[in-house]
Amino acid sequence: MKKIIMTGTLAALLTFGGLSVPALAGPVDVVVESAWSRASIGMNRPGAVYMTIRNTGDEPVTLIGLSTPLAMMPEIHETKTNAEGVSSMSAAGEIAIAPGESVALEPGGLHAMLMRLQQPMTEGETFPLTLLFVDGGEVTVEVPILGIAARGPED
Amino acid sequence: MALTEMDFRLTDHEGNEVGPETLIGRPTMAFFGFTYCPDVCPTTLSDISGWLDDLGDEAKQLNVVFITVDPERDTVEAMAEYVSYFHPAIRGWTGPEGQIARIADGFRAAYERVPTEGGDYTMNHTASVFLFGAAGRFVTMIDYHEPREFAVPKIRRALEEETEGAT
Ligand SMILES: [Cu+2]
């Protein structure tokens, strides 16, 4: 069954300074910071989400996937640029984060790629993105949608 | 290759026919990409917009061109909408596949269509920004996502090339 996007409702419960977006409660000791995405033109083009994922616990955590009502096929991707300057993108697979460490999803490196959008990404709105961990834990974050030309979470 | 040695016919996002001669006479900053690109292309166009803001009035002397490597999806209309979200100096160019291949060849830029799940496709492509002097001579490249403290002086070099060419 399709979930309904809870634009604005969850968002109202959280504070967005643009700097720190507290993750919703989950059994995983993970904090997601500075999540942001760009608005889309229509629904045919994929979207990208960036954030920092911090392991605040004493055990390693492994990110294995994503889910969001916004896209049928969300996937962690990595952009690589080779010695000739050619960029390509591919699925990043599982991402292990050691205790106390963090992983940055940022332009030109890792990103959460949102393929097969279910609705356009509109500047000023937010959407929930759930990070799925290998032990079954989940962390959901509300991702703000910034402008198409945004360069970072503060834009 | 110098712009003066290149041969291609494309259409800009306002429907004007363009070619190498469109660029000669002013320094040029050019970048290959496609509008279905979620990461590299918006990042580069935002970087370019930031460099142009830094350059201020100097930026007005530059041609700034975003050339699609995906003409099948990037029509003139798609390019027009896409570039409208970035710095107003940025022009979007598209055209027939064969002509895109010619300009990429001239620039020594590479691109490749890569199928993805569900019958879609993405494009691998050269993500560097190319700089040419006003006389059409290749000056240098800015690497993908290069910090602006390196990028902006490179653009100034291309701008100065104009003065040299004029003397
Ligand atoms: Cu991707």
From TrEMBL, chain A:
This protein's record includes keyword Signal: yes
Annotated keywords: Signal
InterPro entries: LpqE-like (IPR007410), Lxx211020-like (IPR058248), PCuAC_sf (IPR036182)
Gene3D superfamilies in the record: PCu(A)C copper chaperone
Protein's UniProt keywords contain Iron-sulfur: no
Signal peptide: 1-25
Spans traversing the lipid bilayer: none
Protein name: Copper(I)-binding protein
From TrEMBL, chain B:
GO MF annotations in UniProt: metal ion binding
Cysteines engaged in disulfide bonds, as pairs: C37-C41
Transmembrane segments: none
Domain of life: Bacteria
CDD domains, A to Z: SCO (cd02968)
Domain Thioredoxin: 1-164
Keyword Transferase attributed: no
Annotated keywords: Copper, Disulfide bond, Metal-binding, Plasmid
Pfam families: SCO1-SenC
Residues at which Cu cation binds: C37, C41, H125
Entry-linked Gene3D superfamilies: Glutaredoxin
Family as reported in the entry's similarity comment: Belongs to the SCO1/2 family.
Protein name as annotated: Thioredoxin domain-containing protein
Organism encoding this protein: Phaeobacter piscinae
